[in-house]
Design goal:
Strand order of the largest sheet: 1-4-5-6-7-8-9-10
Strand content: 15-25%
Shape: globular
Helix content: 25-40%
Number of helices: 10
Order of helices and strands: HHEEEHEHEHEHEEHEHEHH
Structural class: alpha/beta
Distance between the termini: 53 Å
CATH topology: TIM Barrel
Number of domains: 1
Length: 251
Protein backbone atom coordinates (compact mmCIF):
# COMPACT_ATOMS: atom_id res chain seq x y z
CA UNK A 1 0.00 0.00 0.00
CA UNK A 2 1.52 3.34 -1.04
CA UNK A 3 1.24 6.57 0.94
CA UNK A 4 -1.82 7.80 -1.00
CA UNK A 5 -3.69 4.55 -0.32
CA UNK A 6 -2.82 4.89 3.36
CA UNK A 7 -4.18 8.43 3.47
CA UNK A 8 -7.41 7.37 1.73
CA UNK A 9 -7.84 4.41 4.09
CA UNK A 10 -7.31 6.67 7.11
CA UNK A 11 -9.87 9.18 5.87
CA UNK A 12 -12.40 6.41 5.29
CA UNK A 13 -11.89 5.18 8.84
CA UNK A 14 -12.36 8.71 10.15
CA UNK A 15 -15.59 9.14 8.18
CA UNK A 16 -16.88 5.80 9.45
CA UNK A 17 -16.13 6.85 13.02
CA UNK A 18 -18.00 10.14 12.54
CA UNK A 19 -21.08 8.37 11.17
CA UNK A 20 -21.15 5.61 13.78
CA UNK A 21 -23.80 5.93 16.48
CA UNK A 22 -22.25 6.60 19.89
CA UNK A 23 -23.50 5.12 23.18
CA UNK A 24 -25.27 7.83 25.20
CA UNK A 25 -23.56 9.09 28.35
CA UNK A 26 -26.76 10.76 29.50
CA UNK A 27 -28.87 7.61 29.14
CA UNK A 28 -26.20 5.43 30.72
CA UNK A 29 -26.29 7.54 33.88
CA UNK A 30 -30.08 7.60 33.96
CA UNK A 31 -30.19 3.80 33.71
CA UNK A 32 -27.35 3.09 36.14
CA UNK A 33 -27.80 2.26 39.82
CA UNK A 34 -24.43 3.81 40.68
CA UNK A 35 -23.79 6.42 37.97
CA UNK A 36 -20.03 6.19 38.32
CA UNK A 37 -17.99 7.72 35.51
CA UNK A 38 -14.62 6.07 36.12
CA UNK A 39 -11.75 8.21 34.90
CA UNK A 40 -8.49 7.16 33.25
CA UNK A 41 -6.23 9.85 34.68
CA UNK A 42 -2.49 9.28 34.70
CA UNK A 43 -1.39 12.71 35.90
CA UNK A 44 -2.73 15.90 37.48
CA UNK A 45 -1.35 19.47 37.52
CA UNK A 46 -1.36 19.61 41.33
CA UNK A 47 -0.09 16.10 42.20
CA UNK A 48 2.08 15.15 39.25
CA UNK A 49 2.08 11.55 38.05
CA UNK A 50 -0.59 9.37 39.63
CA UNK A 51 -0.07 6.28 37.49
CA UNK A 52 2.47 6.95 34.76
CA UNK A 53 2.51 3.26 33.83
CA UNK A 54 -1.28 3.16 33.36
CA UNK A 55 -2.31 1.75 30.00
CA UNK A 56 -5.40 2.77 28.04
CA UNK A 57 -5.55 -0.77 26.66
CA UNK A 58 -6.03 -2.16 30.18
CA UNK A 59 -7.51 0.23 32.78
CA UNK A 60 -10.64 1.44 30.90
CA UNK A 61 -11.66 -2.13 29.99
CA UNK A 62 -11.11 -3.19 33.60
CA UNK A 63 -13.36 -0.31 34.69
CA UNK A 64 -16.05 -1.61 32.33
CA UNK A 65 -15.69 -5.17 33.63
CA UNK A 66 -16.00 -3.96 37.23
CA UNK A 67 -19.25 -2.04 36.87
CA UNK A 68 -18.56 1.51 35.65
CA UNK A 69 -21.59 3.24 34.10
CA UNK A 70 -19.33 5.24 31.77
CA UNK A 71 -15.73 6.33 31.35
CA UNK A 72 -13.82 9.58 31.24
CA UNK A 73 -10.46 9.64 29.50
CA UNK A 74 -8.07 12.59 29.77
CA UNK A 75 -6.70 13.63 26.38
CA UNK A 76 -4.78 16.75 27.43
CA UNK A 77 -1.06 16.04 27.01
CA UNK A 78 0.62 18.91 28.86
CA UNK A 79 -1.17 18.89 32.21
CA UNK A 80 -2.60 15.38 32.41
CA UNK A 81 -0.29 13.17 30.35
CA UNK A 82 -3.21 12.22 28.14
CA UNK A 83 -3.67 11.65 24.41
CA UNK A 84 -6.49 11.24 21.90
CA UNK A 85 -5.20 7.77 21.07
CA UNK A 86 -6.07 6.62 24.59
CA UNK A 87 -9.76 6.66 23.62
CA UNK A 88 -9.02 4.80 20.40
CA UNK A 89 -6.97 2.22 22.32
CA UNK A 90 -9.75 1.78 24.87
CA UNK A 91 -12.27 1.15 22.08
CA UNK A 92 -9.93 -1.30 20.38
CA UNK A 93 -9.49 -3.17 23.68
CA UNK A 94 -13.24 -3.84 23.82
CA UNK A 95 -14.74 -0.85 25.65
CA UNK A 96 -18.35 -0.28 24.60
CA UNK A 97 -19.39 2.13 27.37
CA UNK A 98 -19.90 5.84 26.70
CA UNK A 99 -16.58 7.70 26.87
CA UNK A 100 -16.20 11.35 27.83
CA UNK A 101 -13.48 13.22 25.91
CA UNK A 102 -11.96 15.23 28.73
CA UNK A 103 -9.84 18.16 27.67
CA UNK A 104 -9.90 21.94 27.60
CA UNK A 105 -12.16 22.14 24.54
CA UNK A 106 -12.20 25.64 23.09
CA UNK A 107 -12.68 25.18 19.33
CA UNK A 108 -14.58 23.08 16.79
CA UNK A 109 -11.49 21.20 15.63
CA UNK A 110 -11.32 19.44 19.00
CA UNK A 111 -14.90 18.26 18.54
CA UNK A 112 -13.91 16.54 15.31
CA UNK A 113 -10.97 14.95 17.15
CA UNK A 114 -13.35 13.64 19.82
CA UNK A 115 -15.62 12.08 17.21
CA UNK A 116 -12.79 10.47 15.26
CA UNK A 117 -11.18 8.83 18.30
CA UNK A 118 -14.48 7.30 19.43
CA UNK A 119 -15.83 9.52 22.21
CA UNK A 120 -19.53 9.76 23.05
CA UNK A 121 -19.42 13.15 24.76
CA UNK A 122 -17.16 16.14 25.31
CA UNK A 123 -16.49 18.28 28.35
CA UNK A 124 -17.04 22.02 28.04
CA UNK A 125 -15.84 24.18 30.94
CA UNK A 126 -17.77 27.37 31.61
CA UNK A 127 -14.70 29.07 33.09
CA UNK A 128 -12.84 28.63 29.78
CA UNK A 129 -15.56 29.95 27.46
CA UNK A 130 -17.88 32.88 26.99
CA UNK A 131 -21.55 31.97 26.96
CA UNK A 132 -21.72 32.62 23.21
CA UNK A 133 -18.70 30.40 22.56
CA UNK A 134 -20.20 27.67 24.69
CA UNK A 135 -23.53 27.86 22.86
CA UNK A 136 -21.79 27.54 19.49
CA UNK A 137 -19.75 24.53 20.62
CA UNK A 138 -22.83 22.79 22.04
CA UNK A 139 -24.65 23.28 18.74
CA UNK A 140 -21.70 21.93 16.75
CA UNK A 141 -21.17 18.98 19.10
CA UNK A 142 -24.81 17.97 18.71
CA UNK A 143 -24.52 18.26 14.94
CA UNK A 144 -21.61 15.81 15.10
CA UNK A 145 -23.54 13.36 17.26
CA UNK A 146 -21.73 14.20 20.50
CA UNK A 147 -23.33 14.87 23.85
CA UNK A 148 -22.06 17.69 26.06
CA UNK A 149 -21.18 17.69 29.74
CA UNK A 150 -21.05 21.35 30.73
CA UNK A 151 -18.90 21.92 33.80
CA UNK A 152 -19.51 24.76 36.25
CA UNK A 153 -17.92 25.57 39.57
CA UNK A 154 -19.53 28.71 40.98
CA UNK A 155 -22.98 30.19 41.32
CA UNK A 156 -22.04 32.87 38.78
CA UNK A 157 -21.52 30.18 36.12
CA UNK A 158 -24.89 28.49 36.59
CA UNK A 159 -26.47 30.70 33.93
CA UNK A 160 -24.59 28.58 31.36
CA UNK A 161 -27.03 25.76 32.16
CA UNK A 162 -29.65 27.75 30.23
CA UNK A 163 -27.86 26.58 27.07
CA UNK A 164 -29.42 23.13 27.59
CA UNK A 165 -26.43 20.81 27.52
CA UNK A 166 -27.10 17.08 27.88
CA UNK A 167 -25.43 16.96 31.28
CA UNK A 168 -24.53 19.63 33.83
CA UNK A 169 -21.48 19.06 36.01
CA UNK A 170 -20.44 20.71 39.24
CA UNK A 171 -16.69 20.61 39.71
CA UNK A 172 -15.81 20.31 43.37
CA UNK A 173 -12.21 21.31 42.63
CA UNK A 174 -11.42 25.00 42.35
CA UNK A 175 -9.48 25.37 39.09
CA UNK A 176 -7.50 28.27 40.55
CA UNK A 177 -6.48 26.93 43.95
CA UNK A 178 -6.98 23.19 43.29
CA UNK A 179 -8.79 22.95 46.65
CA UNK A 180 -11.46 20.23 46.55
CA UNK A 181 -14.70 20.35 48.52
CA UNK A 182 -17.66 18.07 47.73
CA UNK A 183 -19.91 20.48 49.62
CA UNK A 184 -19.78 22.60 46.46
CA UNK A 185 -22.10 20.10 44.75
CA UNK A 186 -24.58 20.14 47.62
CA UNK A 187 -24.43 23.95 47.81
CA UNK A 188 -25.22 24.45 44.12
CA UNK A 189 -27.56 21.49 43.51
CA UNK A 190 -30.91 23.18 44.19
CA UNK A 191 -29.94 26.36 42.35
CA UNK A 192 -28.77 24.33 39.38
CA UNK A 193 -32.04 22.36 39.25
CA UNK A 194 -33.93 25.66 39.25
CA UNK A 195 -31.98 26.88 36.21
CA UNK A 196 -32.23 23.55 34.37
CA UNK A 197 -35.91 23.03 35.07
CA UNK A 198 -37.65 19.66 35.21
CA UNK A 199 -38.97 17.26 32.63
CA UNK A 200 -37.58 14.30 30.78
CA UNK A 201 -35.25 16.48 28.71
CA UNK A 202 -33.63 18.22 31.68
CA UNK A 203 -29.84 17.85 31.88
CA UNK A 204 -28.51 15.02 34.05
CA UNK A 205 -26.56 16.37 37.03
CA UNK A 206 -22.99 15.18 37.55
CA UNK A 207 -20.73 15.75 40.56
CA UNK A 208 -17.05 15.87 39.67
CA UNK A 209 -13.89 15.42 41.76
CA UNK A 210 -13.19 14.76 45.43
CA UNK A 211 -15.53 11.77 45.79
CA UNK A 212 -13.75 9.06 47.77
CA UNK A 213 -16.46 7.44 49.90
CA UNK A 214 -19.49 5.36 48.84
CA UNK A 215 -21.72 7.17 51.32
CA UNK A 216 -20.98 10.45 49.53
CA UNK A 217 -22.58 9.04 46.39
CA UNK A 218 -25.68 8.00 48.34
CA UNK A 219 -25.98 11.54 49.71
CA UNK A 220 -25.38 13.16 46.31
CA UNK A 221 -28.08 11.00 44.72
CA UNK A 222 -30.53 12.29 47.31
CA UNK A 223 -29.54 15.81 46.27
CA UNK A 224 -30.45 15.06 42.65
CA UNK A 225 -27.16 13.96 41.09
CA UNK A 226 -27.08 10.91 38.82
CA UNK A 227 -23.46 10.99 37.66
CA UNK A 228 -20.29 10.85 39.74
CA UNK A 229 -16.92 11.37 38.09
CA UNK A 230 -14.16 9.63 40.03
CA UNK A 231 -10.55 9.28 38.95
CA UNK A 232 -7.77 9.66 41.50
CA UNK A 233 -9.53 7.50 44.09
CA UNK A 234 -9.16 4.52 41.74
CA UNK A 235 -6.06 5.45 39.73
CA UNK A 236 -3.81 5.77 42.78
CA UNK A 237 -4.39 2.11 43.67
CA UNK A 238 -2.42 -0.85 42.24
CA UNK A 239 -5.52 -2.10 40.37
CA UNK A 240 -7.99 0.71 39.48
CA UNK A 241 -10.64 -1.67 38.11
CA UNK A 242 -10.61 -3.82 41.23
CA UNK A 243 -10.76 -0.69 43.40
CA UNK A 244 -13.86 0.41 41.47
CA UNK A 245 -15.52 -2.96 41.99
CA UNK A 246 -14.87 -2.83 45.73
CA UNK A 247 -16.19 0.74 45.87
CA UNK A 248 -19.42 -0.18 44.07
CA UNK A 249 -19.96 -3.13 46.40
CA UNK A 250 -20.20 -0.68 49.30
CA UNK A 251 -22.75 1.67 47.75
Amino acid sequence: MDILDQIIATKREELAAMRAKKPSLRQALIDSKTGIIAEFKRRSPSKGWIKEEGRATEVPLSYQQNGAAALSILTDKHYFGGHDRFITEARQSGVTLPILYKNFVIDEFQLYEAVICGASAVLLIAACLTKAECAALIQKAHALGLEVLLEMHSEQELEYAELKPDLCGINNRNLGSFVTDVENSFRLAEKLRTVCGGGSDAPVLVSESGISKPETIRELRQAGFRGFLIGETFMKTPDPGKALGQFIAQI
